[in-house]
Specification:
One of its GO terms (biological process) is glutathione metabolic process. One of its GO terms (molecular function) is flavin adenine dinucleotide binding. A hairpin with a 5-residue loop joins strand 20 and strand 21. 32% of the residues lie in helices and 22% in strands. Strands 1, 2, 3, 4, 5, 6 and 16 form a 7-stranded mixed β-sheet that branches. The protein contains 13 helices and 21 strands. It has 3 domains: 201 residues, FAD/NAD(P)-binding domain; 111 residues, FAD/NAD(P)-binding domain (3-Layer(bba) Sandwich); 100 residues, Enolase-like, domain 1, CATH 3.30.390.30. The protein is globular and about 70 Å long. Bound molecules: NADPH dihydro-nicotinamide-adenine-dinucleotide phosphate (NDP). NADPH dihydro-nicotinamide-adenine-dinucleotide phosphate binds next to helix 6 and strand 17. The site of NADPH dihydro-nicotinamide-adenine-dinucleotide phosphate (NDP) has 25 residues, from helix 6 and strand 17.
Amino acid sequence: MAADTTEYDFDLFTIGAGSGGVRASRVAAAHGARVAVAEEFRVGGTCVIRGCVPKKMLVYGAHFAEDLEDCAKFGWEIGEKSFDWIKLRDNVLNDVDRLENAYTETLENHDVTIFRERAEITGGHEITLASGKVVTARYILIATGAHPRMPTCEGAEHAISSNEAFHLDALPKRILIAGGGYIANEFAGIFNEFGSKVTIVNRSDVLLRGYDESVRDRLLQISTMKGIEFRFNTTFEYIRECPDGGYFVKLSDRDEEHADVVMFATGRVPNVKGLGLDKAGVELGERGEIVVDRFSKTNIDHIYAVGDVTDRVQLTPVAIREGQAFADTVFGKGDPVAVDHGCIPSAVFSHPPIASVGMTEGQARNKLGTVKVYQADFRPMKNVLAGRNERSLMKMICDGENGKIVGIHMIAPEAPEMMQAAAIAVKAGLTKADFDATVAIHPTMAEELVLMR
Ligand code: NDP
C-alpha cells in the first residue's frame, strides 16, 4: 500500500506485541506501512514469555525423569541422579530473554516503532500512551491476548497461575492444580515428573472437554498410574496461609489439607480492560471477547483484533495466521484473506501427550450419523523393553458414507509430531483408503496411522 504520510502519524498502531501482534506488525511493515506497536510487558507475549515455549522446555526437562529410569533396561548404568529446579528454571528464563530479543530485533529490522508502555484508544484514530504521548493511526489492531481466570474463593489471592509457575523459588513438595484443561494437565505432568505430589482439582469429572473421550480416559488412567491424584466434582472453599509455610486448603467435599502451592488453570479471559474500547464503540461478546468478522474487523471500520482477545480459538498458530491475514488484507496488494478456523490440529503436552484434529467420535456420530472408527491400541516398543506398562491409543474417525477421514486422535509419545503431518491429510480431505495406500515406515509408532483396522 502507499503510506499515508499526511493525515496520521502511523498507518497501523498495534496494541500488544504477542504472537498475533508481532506477525501483523512485521507483515504490515513489509507491505510498506508505517507501523508502531505498544507493549506494556515483554515483546513476545504469552506464548514466548510465559506460555507454550518455556512450558515445552519444562516438558523436555520432565521427560528425563522417566528416560533416566528406563535407561537401565537399555544397558545404561548411571550414578545417583538428582534434579535441580533452579538450574532448569534459570536456563529456561535465559532462553526466554534470548527469544524476546529475537522478536524485538525482527520488529526493529522492519522499522516498526516499539513503545514499551501501555496504550489506550482515546479518540477515533487517536491512541494515548502511558507516558502521555498521543499518536494517531489510520488503522488500529488490538492484539492484547488474554489473562488467566482466577476463580473467587476465600484466599484466592494466595494461588498462582501458570504465569508464576515459571518463576517458583522452589519445587513444591505438594501442589494442588485447579482445572482440568490444557494447563492443568500439562503442569501436572511436569511437576509430577520432577517429584512433586500433584493433585488436580476439577469442578466436573471431565478432563480436557472437547477432546475425544477415549484419549481423555487413557490420559486419566496413565496419569493416575504415574501418581497424579484427581479430585472431581469439587470446588475450593478457602485457601489460608499456614504459619509454617504453604497453605491450608479446604475443598467443598473433604477435610482441610495442606499444599505448598495452589495453582489455578481455569481458562483465560480476553484482555479488554483499559483499552478505551467502550469510548471507541467496539462491540464485545458474552465472554468479554472482541467481536470480529472473518477478516478480524470489529464493528468499527478501522479497528481490527486478532488472537486470544477475540476468543475464537485460543492457540498461538491461530493468532499468527490471523495477524498475517489481517496485514495481507489491509496492507497487501492481493485479495482479502480470511483465516479458515476449521479442522485446526491441537496438542496437549501432558505425559504422554495428546494430539487431535477434526471431529471426535461423539461429534462425528451426532453430525454424520454413520461413522466408521478405526483404532490402534498398543504398547510402544520403547515402553515394552523398558518394562513400562503404558499403552498408546490412536483413533481414526471416518465418514461411513465415503470413507473420508473426519478426525484423528492420539495419545502417544510424540503424538503432536505425528499429528502435524496427519492433519495435512485430514485437512485435504483424504480417505482411509488413501492412508492404506501409503506404505508404512517400520518400525515407528506413526505407521499405525496407515495400518489401523
Ligand atoms: P482450558 O479451557 O483448557 O481449561 C479450563 C479448565 O478450567 C476446564 O477444566 C474448566 O472446566 C475449568 N474451569 C473453567 N472455569 C472455571 C471456574 N470458574 N472454576 C473452576 N473451574 C473452571 O483452560 P487452560 O487454563 O488450561 O488454558 C487456557 C487456554 O490456553 C486453553 O484454552 C488453550 O487454548 C491455551 N493453551 C494451549 C496449550 C496447547 O496448545 N498445548 C497449552 C496451554 C494453554 P469445564 O471443562 O467444566 O469448563
